[in-house]
Design brief:
17 strands, 404 residues, binds ligand DWN, 13 helices, seven-stranded mixed sheet, globular
């Protein structure tokens, strides 16, 4: 019940009941031994950190059978290409620059760094996705990062100019130790840049499906500044991103090394104005979550009463929270279609809906599809035009519940 950053007591925000692992896709024979944990969230009035109260052991979630491969979205590939180009440009005058990425997954970001012959290192605890990156000739170590690992990397490679991370920092419970490791690894003018789903966006959109076992934190400007001030680092820039339904890119340097961009004050003030650093706002969020659940169930039940079939589009980690919290099983959704080999033929965590190959989606004649990968809506709508042309309808639940 204590904040992982400040040590102060947390105030409870949400109770999602028993939840399985977000990426715990499983075979039929494993149904009886499925793992569940109590998923509650809390807010710390001191650090302003929104966090899970209990999180399963990271080794249960990130391992040699990790089910998420970052390169499953073309738009995300483009996002990482653009970001890496910006970074490459900023170091073009540097002699032998060194870039580290925490949680490099299948190398979606570092492959652009490798293409430019820049010294780099990826750190990735999930061996199967790390292997995909290694096969692309990217330098990767398969480890959970902490201050000890940081020391080893420093001894072997020296300090870094950039420490990068995308959709990873919010997964790490021992984040304070990680922050110490980052500070230790960065040279005097070294820069940390990371992006993660933004607490302000989750609250504004009521996108509570961003809360699952892997996402132990939802960051804000306030909480990130509080966390990194503890290791002599500070925010120097904030840039909102449209990825993953509303993310924030945080840039930090060692205290006093860089002039702060106006965006820092802007977002700190905005969070105060919107109440994103206020427990009352978290309680409003919880009320909106309850309303969203009821409305979503109502729409699905109405379709089922008309004897129409519903499928799911993309077996995302986020869908695990939606399905288990709203108690939606295979009586309501027949199948979920997905592109990931390791998920196909298995069943959704907790609710046991069969996962089918996305190739079969085109042959199916589902009148209704729930868009679980709502964060990739643009990319998906562009490639699935035939579905709507043939009379198919999307059930969208973000940023509002509607049928299109
Ligand atoms: O933080 C995390 C984010 C970045 O990625 C992780 N904890 C896990 C993962 O979350 P997610 O599973 O909710 O991510 P996505 O990117 O919203 O969904 C990926 C899934 O969607 C994959 O199983 C592939 C599938 N997909 C698909 O079948 N067709 C995705 C796209 C874009 C598609 O067109």
């Amino acid at each position: 019940m204590n904040c992982r950053i400040s040590g102060k007591k947390l105030s409870i925000v949400n109770d999602f009941g028993k939840q399985p692992l977000g990426n715990g896709f499983l075979n039929k024979e494993d149904f009886d031994n499925e793992f569940f944990f109590n998923m509650k969230t809390g807010f710390c009035n001191e650090s302003k950190m929104f966090q899970l109260i209990e999180q399963p052991n990271p080794k249960k979630m990130f391992h040699e059978n990790y089910a998420f491969f970052s390169s499953s979205s073309e738009n995300m590939k483009e996002h990482f290409r653009n970001w890496s180009n910006q970074i490459i440009k900023s170091i073009e005058k540097k002699n032998d620059p060194f870039i580290i990425e925490l949680g490099c997954n299948d190398g979606i970001f570092l492959e652009n760094i490798r293409d430019n012959n820049i010294r780099h290192l990826g750190i990735e605890p999930s061996a199967n996705v790390a292997q995909v990156a290694k096969n692309k000739d990217i330098n990767v170590i398969t480890e959970f990062f902490n201050a000890n690992v940081a020391n080893k990397i420093k001894d072997q490679n020296g300090k870094a100019d950039y420490f990068i991370s995308a959709n990873v920092m919010c997964h790490i419970p021992h984040i304070l130790d990680v922050a110490k490791g980052i500070e230790l690894l960065l040279n005097e003018n070294g820069i940390l840049v990371f992006e993660d789903p933004y607490l302000g966006s989750v609250i504004n959109k009521t996108s509570y499906d961003q809360i699952y076992d892997e996402h132990v934190y939802l960051f804000s400007a306030h909480s990130v500044n509080y966390l990194f001030n503890k290791v002599n680092m500070e925010l120097i820039k904030l840039e909102p991103q449209s990825t993953h339904g509303g993310s924030m890119r945080y840039t930090l340097g060692k205290i006093g090394k860089y002039q702060k961009d106006l965006s820092v004050e802007y977002y700190l003030n905005l969070e105060k104005k919107d109440g994103v650093e206020n427990y009352e706002k978290m309680l409003d969020f919880n009320n909106n979550v309850l309303k969203h659940k009821n409305e979503f169930n109502k729409i699905l039940n109405k379709i089922k009463k008309e004897n129409l079939n519903i499928c799911g589009y993309a077996a995302t980690s986020k869908s695990t929270t939606m399905l288990n919290y709203c108690q939606i099983n295979s009586k309501i959704i027949d199948y979920i279609f997905d592109t990931t080999d390791i998920k196909i033929g298995k069943f959704s965590p907790g609710t046991h809906i069969p996962i089918k190959d996305m190739k079969k989606f085109k042959e199916s004649d589902y009148k209704y599809s729930v868009l679980f990968a709502w964060n990739h809506q643009k990319e998906i709508m562009e490639k699935e035009t035939n579905y709507m042309n043939n009379g198919g309808r999307w059930i969208i639940f973000q940023p509002e519940i509607k049928i299109i």
